[in-house]
Write a structure and sequence with these properties.
150 residues, mainly alpha, three-stranded antiparallel beta sheet, two-stranded parallel sheet, elongated
């Protein structure tokens, strides 16, 4: 089958899609002039298909190369180009709660970092060991290690 044959076979479907689009716009009670346009996407959005949909519906139809961008492009086309610079204004002063939240988070971070540094396992010099229950030191001879009393 040739490309022309595929387009000829799909022409009734494209015309039906355009007619359905026109009936949907009429049922929504929207004037066609109020629409920003019709964006067609997907593998069937070929120039002949878009032309047939536009002719059958009476609306301007445009093929979108990136299907994921269709909604974004439609919104941008509906709103139009921005004019001027937006007035942002000055940011508000921080409230007491925001200041305290930052302070509490900062103190907590400082305590956590200090705990991380102080509880790290460090290499001990030869002959000295520190255990969880206290310190140990060599007592000499064959008796081994003796624990510190608390």
């Amino acid at each position: 089958m040739t490309a022309a044959g595929v387009l000829a076979a799909g022409q009734p479907s494209f015309e039906r899609a355009g007619d359905t689009l026109a009936r949907a716009v009429a049922a929504a009670e929207i004037e066609p002039a109020a629409l920003a346009g019709v964006l067609c996407s997907g593998p069937a959005a070929t120039p002949p298909a878009v032309g047939a949909i536009a002719a059958a519906s009476g609306l301007d139809a445009v093929a979108v190369g990136q299907p994921r961008w269709a909604a974004l492009l439609g919104a941008a086309h509906a709103v139009g180009s921005p004019t001027g610079t937006p007035d942002v204004g000055e940011p508000p002063e921080p409230t007491y709660r925001r200041v305290m939240a930052g302070l509490v988070a900062g103190v907590g971070l400082d305590r956590l970092y200090t705990h991380f540094l102080l509880s790290a396992h460090r290499e001990q010099p030869a002959g000295v060991s520190v255990a969880n229950s206290g310190c140990c030191w060599p007592t000499g001879g064959n008796s081994g290690w003796r624990a510190c009393s608390r």
